[in-house]
Amino acid sequence: MAENTQENQQEQNIQENIEDVNTSADANENSNSETASEESEIEKLKNDLSEANDKYLRLYAEFDNYKRRTAKERIDFLQTAGKDVIVSLLAILDDFERAEKAIESAQELTPVKEGVELIHQKLKSILSQKGLKAMESLGEQFDAEIHEAVTNIPAPSDDMKGKVIDELEKGYYLNDKVIRYAKVVVGA
């Protein structure tokens, strides 16, 4: 906002200078006592002012184009930021669709369980490649920075007081930053 005010003030000053030069040039032309050197100086000042104004307008236009281009690039980046993750998950979606068809015609449950377990391992592998890491909470000291206590229960032993006894929902890190807190039961 302050830049726009300064730019507007500079543009207004340039316009006032142009008007002053034009006014003085008109007055000089009407005066017969002016010498030729003064007229050439006025023309030189007009040319200098015109060049400065042109330079200012070009710089302003270039900066405006830069702002538009970076805004467009930022929007494009945000729209495609998750593209690589989605593309890698498409293979798992295909595997689940094949498993669903196999479940309909399956006679035995063991091969279906093995297939689902393979798909689960593949999903975990892809997510870990993208920076996802599961939190280990069971038996750890309760930490409010990474855990969300759902309830407290009497600890089975004294050494389990203040520690995580059960994990209701696993917590996750993405590139060493907590993206989901572990929901845990704490020993009291």
Secondary structure elements and pairings:
Elements: H1 2-30, H2 36-80, H3 83-105, H4 110-129, E1 132-134, E2 147-153, E3 164-169, E4 172-174, E5 177-180, E6 182-187
Parallel strand pairs: 2-6
Antiparallel strand pairs: 1-4, 3-6, 4-5
Structure description:
It is a single chain. With 188 residues, this protein is of the alpha+beta class. It has three domains: 2-80; 82-130; 133-188, Nucleotide Exchange Factor Grpe, Chain A, domain 2 (Roll), CATH 2.30.22.10. It is 62% helix and 15% strand. The protein has four helices and six strands. It has helices spanning 2-30, 36-80, 83-105, 110-129; strands spanning 132-134, 147-153, 164-169, 172-174, 177-180, 182-187. The strands form two sheets. Strands 1-4-5 form a three-stranded antiparallel sheet. It has a three-stranded mixed sheet with strand order 2-6-3, with no helix packed on it. A hairpin with a 2-residue loop joins strand 4 (172-174) and strand 5. The radius of gyration is 36 Å and the shape is elongated. The mean pLDDT is 84.
Brief synopsis:
This protein is 62% helix and 15% strand. By secondary structure, the chain is an alpha+beta fold.
Defining traits:
single chain; 188 residues; alpha+beta; Nucleotide Exchange Factor Grpe, Chain A, domain 2; three-stranded antiparallel β-sheet; three-stranded mixed β-sheet; 4 helices; 6 strands; 62% helix
